[in-house]
């Protein structure tokens, strides 16, 4: 391939809002046959909002939300933003969390793809996936709550459990929206002959609901960041040339390992740094434009 045509291609890319790390990236783009799509923030807008707070027997939903908001205040995750925003209002519109100067949050830590922990007024509060609470903290969900959470997930909602002092106190339900253009992008990727697969750390019910909405038929849910990475390398070992599209810290390893890493421009620095291409406007349709651009550019050269 002549360097000039590739440079023209990358220049054209930037006009389309596609930032390409270097001319050689267009070569990789042309060869891909499989596209892995992260869910939250990639296929969905990642702007979440709290729709319900379910409390365990004897627990107060407002207290659950306040504790969750305080614990999440150190996280940039879309779930955290939604919980903090809801906590600042209060589910009953009273006693706003985060604005209460008496609430002290310390020792925040997050585990990518699983949840967060923090000391809230000296009490360790955990917010995250039930499987993480169980395996890392030996805290299990009461059955009534897990039934309600599964119902919400089947309806396409994301749920996180909130626990302190050895007990799950409630579940926060958050809603996300499929990004405008995501379904069109998936259809166009498929028309270009590419296999599409949804990869998410979220629950299967949510993943299936989003996948159905955008027309993706292969779904892998409940995956940890290292599983995303492993899935990329396994597909490559099976002879696939893989593109990965993602936005999160949890996607960075998979983005770096993929033959072509594509980051959403609204994503985390870790994702953008690991990627070969950044979609400035965070519109999945630009990923399709990138594939078409590379095919066109390399055809002119041949
Ligand atoms: P995705 O793969 O769809 O981008 P993530 O890997 O970021 O999703 O998150 C997977 C799951 O991990 C979430 O659905 C949630 O249950 C849990 N999780 C991640 N970050 C947080 C957080 N800050 N607070 C609560 N739960 C979280
Ligand atoms: Mg994401």
Automatic annotation (TrEMBL):
It comes from the Bacteria. It is found in: Cell membrane. Belongs to the cation transport ATPase (P-type) (TC 3.A.3) family. Type IB subfamily. This is Cu+-exporting ATPase. It comes from Curtobacterium salicis. The lineage of its organism: Bacteria, Bacillati, Actinomycetota, Actinomycetes, Micrococcales. The chain holds residues 396 to 697 of 753 of the full protein.
């Amino acid at each position: 391939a002549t360097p000039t045509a590739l440079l023209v291609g990358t220049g054209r890319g930037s006009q389309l809002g596609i930032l390409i790390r270097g001319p050689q990236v267009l070569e990789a783009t042309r060869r891909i046959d499989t596209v892995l799509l992260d869910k939250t923030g990639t296929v969905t807008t990642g702007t979440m909002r709290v729709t319900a707070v379910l409390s365990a027997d004897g627990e107060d939903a407002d207290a659950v939300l306040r504790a969750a908001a305080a614990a999440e205040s150190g996280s940039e995750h879309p779930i955290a933003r939604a919980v903090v925003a809801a906590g600042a209002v209060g589910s009953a519109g009273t006693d706003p969390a985060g604005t209460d100067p008496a609430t002290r949050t310390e020792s925040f830590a997050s585990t990518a793809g699983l949840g967060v922990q923090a000391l809230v007024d000296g009490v360790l509060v955990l917010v995250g996936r039930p499987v993480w609470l169980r395996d890392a903290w030996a805290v299990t969900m009461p059955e009534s709550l897990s039934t309600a959470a599964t119902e919400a997930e089947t309806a396409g909602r994301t749920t996180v459990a909130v626990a302190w002092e050895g007990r799950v106190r409630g579940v926060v339900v958050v809603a996300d929206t499929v990004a405008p253009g995501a379904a069109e992008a998936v259809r166009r990727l498929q028309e270009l002959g590419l296999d599409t697969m949804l990869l998410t750390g979220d629950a299967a019910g949510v993943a299936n609901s989003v996948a159905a909405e955008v027309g993706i038929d292969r779904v892998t849910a409940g995956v940890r960041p290292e599983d995303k990475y492993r899935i990329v390398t396994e597909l490559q070992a099976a002879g696939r040339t893989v593109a990965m599209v993602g936005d999160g810290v949890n996607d960075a390893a998979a983005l770096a390992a993929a033959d072509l890493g594509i980051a959403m421009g609204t994503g985390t620095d870790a994702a953008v740094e690991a990627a070969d291409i950044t979609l400035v406007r965070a519109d999945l349709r630009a990923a399709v434009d990138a594939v078409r651009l590379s095919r066109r550019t390399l055809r002119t050269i041949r």
